[in-house]
Amino acid sequence: MRKIYLLLVCMIYALSAFSQTRKVEGKVTEQGSGAPLVGVSVLVKGTKTGASTDQDGRYAIQVSSKESSTLVFTYIGYVQREIAVGDKGVINLALATDDKVLNDVVVIGYGTSKKGDLVSSVAQVDMNDLAKAPVRSIDESLAGRVAGVQVNSSDGQPGSSVNIVIRGANSITQNNSPLYVVDGFPVEGFNLNVFDPQEVESIDVLKDASATAIYGARGANGVIMITTKKGKIGAPVISFSPTVSFDNNIKTMDLMNTYEFAKMQLELVPGALGSATDPTPIYTLLTRPGKTLEDYRNVAATDWQTPFFQTGLRQDYSLALRGGTDKTVYAISGNLNDQKGTVINTAYKRYQGRITLDQTLSNKVKVGVNANYAYLFRSGNSAAQGTGGSGTTNILYSVWGYSPLSELTEDEAIDETTSSGTDYKFNPIMNQKNLLRNNKTHNLNVTGYLDYAITNSLRLKITGGINNTRVINEEFNNSKTYPGSPNTTPGRTSGVNGSVSQANTNNWSNENTLTWTKTFNKKHNLNILGGFSAQGNTSNAFGFGATFLPNEKLGISGLNEGILNPVTISTSSLWTLSSFYGRAKYNFKSKYYLEASYRADGSSKFAEGNKWSYFPSLGGSWRFIKEDFLKNSKVLSDGKLRLSYGKTGNNRVNDFAYLPSNDVVPGNSYPWNNTYVSSIIPTSLGNPKVKWETTDQYDAGVDLGFLKNRISLTVDVYKKNTKDLLLRATLPTSSGYTTAFKNVGEVSNRGLEITLSTININRKDFQWNSSFNISFNRNKVLALAEDQLTLLSTTSWDNAYANIPSYIAKIGEPLGLMYGFVWEGVYQYSDFNRSSTGEYLLKDNVPANGSARQNIQPGDIRYKDINGDGNVNAADYTVIGNSLPLHTGGFTNNFTYKQFDLNVFFQWSYGNDIQNMNRHVFEGNALGKRFLQQYESYTDRWSPDNQNSSNYRTGGFSVAGYSSRTIEDGSFLRLKTVSLGYNIPKTILDKVKIKTARIFLSGQNLYTWTKYKGLDPEVSTYNSVLTGGFDYSAYPRARTLAFGANVTF
């Protein structure tokens, strides 16, 4: 009886509770346009009850039927509204978009700020545009999106590294990449591939020193703030985003046909044809008994490009669960990215998972944790990667250069008729299929925080995190690869071989801040932040290799059975950084702003006396739109002037660079105690005076809004000087060392950035908005080492060019200048005297091209004699190109018509040059190799019957060197992204219980307008500040067509 009584009580209580609630529903739209807003948070104030709007902007929520309730409507970028429910059952409202841009929240160092309150230059990336680009990583999609941010990739290989430079390069020899702050965790050299782009909430770029000085020693190169997505208040929401993409090469190179190839070979070695009784390789290859050269006009060339390239398939799947109450919000997500490259036996995979939890413990205390794990797998060798330093071993060299007359089958390794000791012609398809090149990356990033509101004005925040990375590299060369083949060239005695190495990096960080915020008399707004932090990093690497592996079937697992390489890898290092910092922000009536910061950094990388450095900043702004004389302006809706100064640093030097170093050399031994021991040699002279590279930066900007901010314009001008650059200065020979690191260099950057955003059409059924940005940067070297006017750099693409400078840095000139001879076409008959025996002898007043004068013939390449001494040599090298562009930018258009949306994005670079070394090899055979196929363009070359051609004759190249002949204009305008989407109507989705669904078709790298003759103008094989714009055997960038969907349940 008692159980029945308790059951009845519970039922009555439940019915009573149910009768005390009722449903309120409605629709939320954008004020002005009337467009429905999707994902607006609707919360019953003071309770855990919440809901969000669907695709049509509709919501439904339960409220108390007895007590008065208030609904809170929140949507990022819109004005928050609170509506008293009363007795209403339907509440429709429009959220205001006035001053939307000014109220957007951006993430800055140790906090956030409204755009309208900024005194510094901070750019916010439009994540909606980024989400529409079919790319595998965040950095790929940043190019052209933000003024002042230049993104350079070495080539188009899946998983290849990307360099990001903000407002020009500050350092000559050290790292120029920005500092990444991921959910409050500062990380140098962060690998953005470890994140699924779908999981990024916002990206904010801090560009001037007023914004970056709070990061002191690591802020000189700019700071990129990345905030990942978290849970949201409301019922659990499942998001699923599948995408399937197809990648194809944008371009392949046109090569000679069989006739032109045979003709070129006969021109190269006249009289070496041989006969049927005495067949030379040329005879066997070209004439075949009973055939003449003419017979090859209709012989199909062997196609090596088609089987080498393939259609790449990319599959990307993202799944996420988000939800929560006003006390607890959570998010769990995972991503799988599987990509097959456009070159056979190349691929890239990413397996990634993330979990976040934010818990409000009380009205004063909030804690949270964010954990991300990623496994990255990249297979296949880079197209720009050779073997043993020879340019003849790069994989595109073997594809382009192989004889079109070769009858080599897929199972044959070498064409004996064309192979030689200096040009090992190995089957490019067999080689590429059998090479094992694996790069495996494990990354774990965990951050946690405690946020304690001590009072309404004073807040303590403690954050901590770890970032652990393990990278494993595996190489294995079996007997069907060039490096492991038994059919070796003289001197190659490695047999089947392989190697393995591992590098581990463990980074930890702790940040502690106190923030005091106060408003006085509703006019004076003050925000003061103070904090201290500690960060440390440990790293180690080890590895070994082995040759003559007896059992190649074991692959990389059989290294222990071979002959171990005596040169092994074993290194370890560490560094720590301690910091104290503060910032004060003040504004009067949100009209006049003043901000100052100061940071002290102490680093273990420097010796006593130089461990600590100090980084101040000062900035101010004037919101003149709030002045009485502009309040009623019908044209100008926003106006602000900004001025700032700051000092930042770059501590990315080698750990313990101030200490002398020694190396163990196993190959050089000496007798000791009746045995031989490895020798130790000094390699670097220490310098305890080594200190930070420091940058002083000045910035002036204006932010304007017109016609209720339908037109927004931001213009920034800046100047930054970086001094105390670390360079290797020459030492006296009496020291026993050649060079040592010293703080002696100086570089300046000056620039202009313009960003224009417009709302062109804003109607209920049709919207069109645009965004345009353009950046100009002028870089100049102000100082090098003592008594040094130039700094030469080489590019190690071929042994013959290992010691030949290809780039130069000069005082008074920008970095990245290309260096070489000035090309003057070819020698003509008029440049020669003819002897009685018919020989051509170069006239005395005509300079030689570096070869002996008696060997130069009509049709040979000709260079300019800069110094006028009659002979062209290294003294005639000069600047022949500039790898830095005059300006870069991007242009985006977004269209929405009813359920359809269209995004079109253009990216460009103008004024930069490219050193096209592919033409150096395949448009004239500058390496001097026999039986080397050439580009079709070389069919137009100088000959007695074709004297107007600018291409030199066969065999007409002189000494090894770079020249302006292969310098090309690298400017381009690229249709980077086109994405067409369709939002499926709610009436259809309700039937299958789906909340929202969008399907889309996207294209990437669809078309490029350029004069560049190579595969792709967006290339820099040796991707550095000193050697930019170098193109040799780069992995082709792909054109991508993607199909996908974004679905929520």
UniProtKB/TrEMBL annotation:
Domain (TonB-dependent receptor-like beta-barrel) ranges: 422-867
Membrane topology per record: Multi-pass membrane protein
Location of this chain's protein in the cell: Cell outer membrane
Domain of life, source organism: Bacteria
Start and end residues of each stretch annotated as Disordered: 477-497
Record Gene3D superfamilies: Carboxypeptidase-like, regulatory domain, TonB-dependent receptor, beta-barrel domain, TonB-dependent receptor, plug domain
Protein name: TonB-linked outer membrane protein, SusC/RagA family
Lineage per the UniProt record: Bacteria, Pseudomonadati, Bacteroidota, Sphingobacteriia, Sphingobacteriales
